[in-house]
Amino acid sequence: MESDSETHSGEDTTPDDWMELADDSPAHSPAASQKPSDKEDFKLSLITWNVEGINGEKLPERARGLVKYLNVYNPDVVFLQELIDPYVQFLKKRFESYLMIEGAEEGYFTGMLLKKSRVTLVESEIVPYRTTKMMRNLLVAQVIVDGQKLCLMTSHLESGKACSKERMNQLHVVKWRFKRAPDDVTVVFGGDTNLRDAEVTKVGLPATVCDVWERLGKQEHCRYTWDTTTNTNKTLPFVARCRFDRIYLRPAIKRGVPRLAPDHMALVGLEKLDCGRYTSDHWGIYCTFSAE
């Protein structure tokens, strides 16, 4: 998001609010009945979403909205930003079929959900951004999916126009991780980057790395993930349409290893919930990949 000062604490809700919602039965997903063995080729599905957990307004209801979306899309991997501990505990109870990895224990932080039936965790680590003023870091997980090695990374880069230098420093850390990944590993990064295109140009990504939205033809309906012209969760004195949330891919480049390529992208969370709010002030991104 653009400014963390516009948010307030998730402590507006009580444990009972979360527990009441935790008893809801999950929605059925047609995709859930599809086993990996049913698929002829290697595929991967992913959602990345800043869930606005540090804004306590209707938070349990909005968390239930996230659960419904995840049940519908049934992704293999979920990258989440702006989590708080009650939100994490709620998700752990609702998604026992996923492994939750957390980017911190206090404040607000990132996390990953990995579908146990498809994704095997090898190891994970938290890479600090040493000069951050906003508790930001890079969460990295080395995993195996259908015998293929993947490096999954998510982050919430420094927010606000004034923090451009720090944000680019953080992008340099991500860039370094892309460059040092072994040739037989596919690397996928997704998150709330707060990036402006000029900043990406200044840092420069490796030639082997693609911006998934750009690779798929820069579809206009997927461009703006933080859009105050349509998302009313925030009351701001300005109008902004920004592509803050991004996914970057570096396919494995070793001969004989399947090369992953994006084949679909869509924004999620566009429907207003019954509580009158959207799941988040950000739209989520749903993306699928297939072996070329």
Question: How would you sum up this structure, described in words?
Answer:
The strands form three sheets. A six-stranded mixed sheet has the order 3-4-2-1-14-13. It starts with 14 loop residues before the first helix and ends with a strand. Strand 3 and strand 4 form a beta hairpin. The chain is globular. By secondary structure, it is of the alpha+beta class. Helices cover 21% and strands 32% of the residues. The chain is built from six helices and 14 strands. Helix 4 crosses helix 5.
Q: What descriptors fit this protein?
A:
disordered N terminus; alpha+beta
Summarize the structure.
With 292 residues, this protein is α+β, with helices and mostly antiparallel strands. It contains six helices and 14 strands. It is 21% helix and 32% strand.
Order of strands, main sheet, comes to 3-4-2-1-14-13
Q: What's the end-to-end separation, in Å? A: 34 Å
Number of strands: 14
Report the principal-axis shape.
Answer: globular
Q: Major beta sheet, specifics?
A: 6 strands, mixed
What order do the helices and strands come in, and which of them pair?
Blueprint: H1 15-22, E1 43-50, H2 59-73, E2 77-83, H3 85-94, E3 98-102, E4 109-115, E5 119-128, E6 137-145, E7 148-156, H4 164-180, E8 185-192, H5 197-203, E9 210-211, H6 212-215, E10 226-227, E11 241-242, E12 245-250, E13 260-268, E14 284-291
Parallel strand pairs: 1-2, 7-8
Antiparallel strand pairs: 1-14, 2-4, 3-4, 5-6, 6-7, 8-12, 9-12, 10-11, 13-14
